[in-house]
Write a structure and sequence with these properties.
mainly alpha; 2 helices
Amino acid sequence: MSPTVTGMAAGAVLAVMALAFGFWGLLLTALFMGIGAVLGRTSEGKLDLGGVLDALRGKRSSS
């Protein structure tokens, strides 16, 4: 799937959750989608989770 189609699908899911469950349901859905995206990128090998955590802790710079 192209990034445009993926973005449209994510937007549609968030819109339905906002209508069905209100603001907090929307936030919870967005949080779970973000967690799923991070886990998916990590399992594909496109994201080094250890490097991200080191950067957040200030142990490694991005340059």
